[in-house]
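Allow me, if you will, to draw on your knowledge of protein folds for a short while. I have a record of one protein: its chain in single-letter code and its fold written as C-alpha cells. The full record is reproduced below for your convenience:
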Amino acid sequence: MKLNTVKLGLAAIAVIAAVLTSCRNDTPIPRIRETGGIKVVYPEGLTVISVKEDTLTFTNRTTGVSKKAAFGDTITLSNGLYDCFYNAVATYTDKQGTAADGEFYGAVTSVEIGDGAPDFTIEAHLRSEKGDFIIEEIFFTGTLYPTGKQYYGDGYVKIYNNTDHVLYADGIALVESKFVSTIKWDYVPDIQSDTMTIHAIYVVPGSGTDHPVKPGESFIICDTGIDHRNANSNSFDLSRADFEWYDVSNVPAHMDIDSETVPNLDKWYCYTNSFFVLHNRGFRSYAIARVPLPKEEYLEKYWYTYTYVMHIEAGDFPMEQEAYKLPNSWIVDGVNCSVETERLWNILPPSIDAGWTHCGAMDHDKTRYFKSVRRKMTGLTEDGHRILQDTNNSTDDFNTECVPSIIEEQGTSISSDGTKATGRTYDGVKPIETDVEQETVSQ
C-alpha cells in the first residue's frame, strides 16, 4: 500500500510562533487558522484569543483506521479517501467582548489523499451548552419472527435529560430526513448548511409543562405502543412507552394500530399514505427539535422545492421534488446514520453532527437486527445519574450495534432463534455492575 507523508506542518513553525506571540500580547488569532493547505475557519462574530490545544483526526473510509495529529504536526497516511475531524479547546470573546473558554469542532468528508499534501477548509463551530434533551438511543433495525422474517412496529427513539434540571418534553419534535446518506445529487438550492430537509415530523403534545422529565431520566417515543410479543414472540413490550406516532392510513391493506395505553404524538406531516416506520437499514438522519411556530404556520411557510440532475446509466434526467424543511437553529440534537459500504455523505451538517453511526457493516446486513445505537456514558453524577457523551460527533458519541436497552431491561430475544438477553448495561457496552465510582463527577 502506498504511503503518503502528509505535510500538515510546512507552515507549522510560523503558525505556532504566531500563536505564542498572540498569547503573550493578547492579540487575536486570525479567523482563518492555517497549516500547509489545511485551513480552519472560526465562527464569525467570535474572536479566538488563544488555542490551548487542537487536533486533526483522519479516518480512512475504506479501512476505518483513524490517525490523529496536533494541528501543525506531520502525519503519515496511506493514499485513499478520508473524513477529517477538527477539535480544539480555545479562549475566545463574543460580540459583547465577554471572554470564555470553549470547545470548537468541525469536519469535512471525502478528502482525497494522494501524492500531494491535502488542501481543504474546515468550518469550526463552537460547541453549544444548550442544556436540552439529547438522543440517547435509536432502535431502527427491528426484530425478526422465529421464521427469520422482518417484523415491523417495534422501532423506538429514547430521549434523555442530560442536564441537572427538569426539562419539559412538551413541543419536542421528532423528525426523519428525506434524503438518504447513500444517494447524493447536487440539490438546487442547496440548503444543507442551515436547513434539514425532512419527510416526517411528529410533535410531543402539551401546553409547555405537562410532561416533565427529571435529570438523568429518559422518555420513549415509539412506533406502536403495544406488547409486541403477542404478535412476535421475539419482540418486546412497548405498552408503557411515553408516546407513539400513529397514522390514519389511506391504504386498507396497511393499517396502523392505535395503542390504548400510549398517547399519540401530534402528527404534523408524514410523506406516506399508510404508516411511518424508521428506515430499518439506517440510511436516514434523525433529529429532535423545538419548533417556535404553531403547526399551521409551519406547514404554510416551510415548504421546499428543489431540483437536481439524476445521473444514471440511461442518461441524465432533470428532476424536481418537494419536501418540508426545518431550520438547523431549531434542532436540539441530531444523529447521522448510514453503513460504511454505501455511505456517500452526512445529511446533517457538522454544526449538528460532525460524524455518523450505524448498525450493520453493509446494506441489507442480516446481523443488524435486534441491535440499536446507544450514546456512550462517561460517568455518574453525585446523584447517580448517567452522564452521556455529547460532542456533536456521533462517530465518537455512540456505541454501535448494541443490544437495545429495552431488550436488556425485559430480557427478551436478541436473535430470531429466541436467545434471550442477559445482563444490563449503562450504554450498550459498560455493564451496570461495573464500579464506576471513580468516574463520578458533579454536573
User: Anything to note?
Assistant: The radius of gyration is 23 Å. The longest strand covers residues 99-113.
